[in-house]
Amino acid sequence: MKEVKDLEVQIKEVSEKFLEVSKEKEIQIISHFDTDGISSATIMIQALKKLDKKFSVKIIKSLEEQFILNLPKDKLTLFLDLASGSLNHITKAELKDVFIIDHHEVIEKVPENIQIINPELHEKQKISGSGLTYLFCREIDSSNKEFAKLAILGMIGDMLDREINKLNNGILNDGEVKRKRGVLIYPSTRPLNRVLEFSSKPYIPGVTGNVKGVLELLREIGLKPETGKYKSLIELDKQEMSKLVTSIMLRNPKAKNTEIIGDIFLIKLFNKLEDTRELSAMINACSKFGESSTAIQLLLELPKAKKQAELIHAKYKQNLVSGLKYTSEIEKIQGKGFVIINAKDQIKDTIIGTIASILSNSALYEEGTIIATMAYYEDKIKVSARTVGKNGRNVRELLSKAMEKIEGETGGHEFAAGCILKQEKEQKFINNLKKNLEIELVKV
Q1: Contact present, 133 and 44 (Cβ < 8 Å)
Q2: Are residue 48 and residue 88 in the same domain, yes or no?
Q3: What's the pLDDT band for 267 if we cut at 50, 70, 90?
Q4: What is the mean pLDDT of residues 108-114?
Q5: What are the strands of the beta sheet with 370-377, ordered from one edge?
Q6: Using the 8-state DSSP alphabet, how is residue 121 labeled?
Q7: d(CA 382, CA 387)
Q8: Are residues 275 and 423 in the same domain?
Q9: Residue range 390-414: average pLDDT?
């Protein structure tokens, strides 16, 4: 194992090594397809352009062994926001010059020939992949400070805004971000009636997806349209913001104040202040519709990409709101401490995981409840499971048990996991899962 150094010392040493190795080599960037990965890739693209380097970019959903084995061996490989769990595969692929900038768990010994920047090896500091990529690029050239706003976007995408440490604070200062305390619904820059109608996180019972419910809430807090439109969130005064919080809390009695109120972060894009949560949602929507290149072009501030990303996001939001409406009406398989929602072909497989996450944060279910959502795609079923809160059973283990003797893939974490199986095994899987959920509950 390599000697453990201070994270900032490691960034400096790895950036120097990178400049040295990349002199004669073409670079292949491999990055994750979420907001953090897209932000990381965009920062790196712009930094390498300044250095006049030859490079290519691949944005991927997950890093599989076969993908790594098929990578060209004569290029410098730069992994962003992934690969910390694939060190053995990288060694097996015999890739020569490998650099990893990531913040995920390191579960294997780091080989001597892999240059890695990862806070998990340095006191487990909380920082996003794009934050690390930014610090790396700033070390290479101080003029890369102009990309700090993209690191802030990645930080919000990875929900690290509640754990702002010294490193993140430095990035925030570099990024000239505007902050305002308020309700964490987005976009904070658009008329409030539209924002409330499409609010999925927090999900507001009787308001999300319900125009009549939106107008009732706005009447309650005494807000009327001015010159034909409602104020935006950042235009509300303290009293109006307080009334809005109260009305949302009354509809979400189990929600905690800390979950609904927080810092709103605004960054300048296309010479206009934009809500980072909205941008993050837009990037994720692009990726889930297979349009990661549009997401990168959006962050590069290419005018044609803005309209395209907005159209994709609008379509994604419509799918999400109709999906949430469908899940509220559908007959569910329920028991003590669990709910299984089988949407079949009524909800897209690309948003079923998002719906599971929204429901797990919605205060509709008690702490510790397991929510499992299912959706068809091709001849398969995608399953996404979440735990409400941070106490309860390990959903990845539960899904693994349910998948025993069923061919398919399982992955994820303790409180968020998923699996894929053939449609022909649908009933067997549901029976297994229901049985395991009931047995596990008895054990607890």
Answers
A1: yes
A2: yes
A3: very high
A4: 88
A5: 333-335, 338-342, 370-377, 380-387, 416-422, 408-412
A6: G
A7: 17
A8: no
A9: 83
Output Rg (C-alpha) for the chain, integer angstroms: 23
Q: Which residues contact 209 (CB under 8 A, 6 or more apart)?
A: 197, 198, 321, 322, 324, 325
pTM over 0.85: no
**Three-class SS state of 313:** helix
CB–CB of 436/398 below 8 Å?
yes
What confidence tier does 2 reach under pLDDT thresholds 50, 70, 90? Answer: very low
CB distance 39 to 292 below 8 Å = no
Question: Is residue 2 situated within a structural domain?
Answer: no
124, 7 contact by CB (below 8 A): no
Give the model confidence (pLDDT) of 68-102 as tens digits: 999 999 999 999 999 988 899 899 999 989 999 99
Give pLDDT tens digits for 10-22: 999 999 999 999 9
Residue 1 pLDDT > 50: no
- What's the distance, CA 439 to chain centroid? 32
Answer with the one of 289, 324, 359 that is the final residue of a domain.
324
Q: How far is CA 87 from CA 11, 109, 121, 177, 385, in A?
A: 19, 8, 14, 36, 27
The Cα 206–Cα 360 span in angstroms is 17
CATH code, domain carrying 425 = 3.10.310.30
The number of domains in the chain is 3
Q: pLDDT band for 162, please (50, 70, 90 cuts).
A: low
Range of the domain at 407: 331-443
Considering the domain architecture, whether residues 199 and 278 belong to the same structural domain is answered as yes
Q: Are 189 and 178 in contact (CB under 8 A)?
A: no
Residue 225, pLDDT above cutoff 80: yes
**Is residue 89 located within the same domain as residue 218?**
no
Distances (CA, A) of 364 to 359, 360, 413: 7, 8, 22
SS3 content of the chain, % helix, strand, coil (to 5): 45, 20, 35
